Amino acid sequence: MASSSVSQGRVALVTGAGQGIGRAIALRLASDGFDVALNDLQANEENLVSVLAVVEANGRKGCYIFADISQEAQVEEMISQVVGKLGGLDVMVCNAGISIMKSFFDTTVEDFDRITSVNLRGTFLCYKHAGKQMVAQGRGGRIIGACSGTGKKGQPLFSAYAASKFGIRGLTQVAALELGPHGISVNAFAPGPVKTPMYDHFETVIGAPKGTLEQELNKTAALGRIALPEDIAVVVSFLASREASLITGQTISVDGGIVFD
């Protein structure tokens, strides 16, 4: 995993950093020695303030920036602010994403467009503008996207979400090929079920008694449990490190053994 002495002076940006997986990633990278820029929507400002306090308590510089990653002008401005406030950009973690649970026939065009605009277009915009900044800096970099087990194997009730996450795998491979000559690696992590607020929402939607969904999902994992946000953060920590310099174009499952490549 990343050494804090090696990571010091490097800057990471994490989208969707206010809670869940994004929060865990931001805190892990801060403990690895990165200065960390936090992104989320303005509605999550209270959460960002809390995460920033922990980043700074680790002795690292930090800031938070509001942006809707589905909007190109806001992504460009976000990258510009990170560079202005923290001095550059070395690691881009495109974590932000949304989901819905609806049958294929009940999913509307508006549902589909909303999910893909954040998950797929948002990831494309973050890859694109972070990549441009890293190329301009001339010191390489790491770009890391958020796929899903549903981006490797489709699941009922997740048509729009699956489409967006399958798209991220292809986008990651193309970006890896084009940015590789600049010393920039591009990879993605693919969680299965993770104990986050989004997971709790799914339990409510299907009407499952609290805790029963986790028990059932644990049975599907070869290692007998679903992931915590910190499990995902460990993998991102490695992908962000210099030790991962020869890994690119990959989408790595972090699910306890639910989906195999």
UniProtKB/TrEMBL annotation:
Keyword presence, Ribonucleoprotein: no
Pfam families: adh_short_C2
GO biological process: fatty acid biosynthetic process
Keyword NADP assigned: yes
GO molecular function terms attached to this record: oxidoreductase activity, acting on the CH-OH group of donors, NAD or NADP as acceptor; quinone binding
Keywords: NADP
Family, per entry: Belongs to the short-chain dehydrogenases/reductases (SDR) family.
PANTHER family according to UniProt: 3-OXOACYL-(ACYL-CARRIER-PROTEIN) REDUCTASE, SHORT-CHAIN DEHYDROGENASES/REDUCTASES FAMILY MEMBER
Protein name: NAD(P)-binding protein
Organism annotation: Guyanagaster necrorhizus
